[in-house]
Amino acid sequence: MSNLTDIILPADQLEGTEAAFSAWLVNVGDSVEKGQPIAELETDKVSMEVCAPESGIIDSLIAAVGDQIEPEKVLGQISQGAPVQASNKHVESTASSETPVDTADSSVSSTMDSTNDQTGRDSISPAVRRLLLENNLVIDPISGSGKRGRVTRNDVLEFIQSGEASPSSAQVQPASSATNTDVAGSDAISSESAGSNAAASPFATDLPASRSSASQLVPHTNMRKSIANHMVSSLLETSPHVTSVFEMDMGNIIEHRKWHKKEYQELGVKLTFTAYFLSAMAKAVASVPQVNAKFHEDALELFEDVNIGVGTALGDDGLVVPVVHQVQSMNLFQIANALNIQTEKARTGGLKPSDMKNGTLTISNHGVSGSLFATPIIINQPQVAILGIGKLEKRVVVESVNDQDTMVIRPKCYVSLSIDHRALDAHQTNLYLSKFVEIIENWGQ
Hints:
The chain has 445 residues and is α+β, with helices and mostly antiparallel strands. The chain folds into three domains: 1-100, CATH 2.40.50.100; 102-172, E3-binding domain (Dihydrolipoamide Transferase); 240-441, Chloramphenicol Acetyltransferase. Helix content is 25%, strand content 22%. It is built from ten helices and 19 strands. A hairpin with a 5-residue loop joins strand 13 and strand 14 (319-320).
């Protein structure tokens, strides 16, 4: 008789967050090692892995895709004795082709089949798929260090850093690239009609015939549903938003970063402008503590710690807000290091619910994607303010040089603060932005 160990999700890993089962990374009968990722869950904010509690043989897979997972719920079992024949297990179907991988990603990872002959390279995680898609890579040339050759996030990152990565036209095509026939059936344009349209005279006066447009439904993820509900609730149901916008000169921090970037790199830390922004945000809170607060009907709760959430886009997958805690007690190097850790987790799908808890203030560095300013940037409840940083660009401004008005070129960006007007007024909003801009513009002086 073999000893069976339950595969469960520890209560402290979810911390009250709801989770749905998204994929098995193993089959019944597979050998696994303690700590090896064997399943994936999706919360409203992150994808997270479930690891094997013990080494042994996968005896049963109980959880199925879409199941709501509660702490301590048994997902499956591991046998520490002889493997049980998969054909005798009533849960074998949970390891079928529909469970571990999304068929839309079939060119990145092969679908599992009911014969249980899948290799480890076929069961890649959503985080790995995201990295492959973001970097326009195929999985074939990447060596896998995981069980049975499974490609991990670290394998992809090392492949990219090695310089061997080159974009491939064979990369996964997005779902929208499906043919019209696949999507719309009888509404698809035939090759004959497409050819005749292409050959039509450019001076033709006939209008194209009206027809239903080809389309497809892309189901919302738990994360997208959560973002939608959170944004609507914040803007329309909870707090009246007001936004103030200042212009900011970035010259001093550009110069400071130029002289310290290499020094930080040698210590393994990437120095970004966002690290400067977090530092200035925390320092400005000392002048306007009402910005770092939570609104209650009978009081405004002011927080001692400045825990700053950093809005991080995940492409089409949504947005996460990892938190850098106790920024007020850190120097620039410590902030940059903590920021590197949290944003790397976000980029590679390694965030846990605890990484996004207890934020007291948020920054949206929307300028990295070209936006000059955005208003309002919706407040991350239950906070009362969110800072926005626009695109850095060179602008012609008028400055006094030797008592003469002179046009000069300066690196500028817009900085905004969207506030909950229940908690803050224009006075505190503008005072906070003034202090923030002053700290940035006089950095190092």
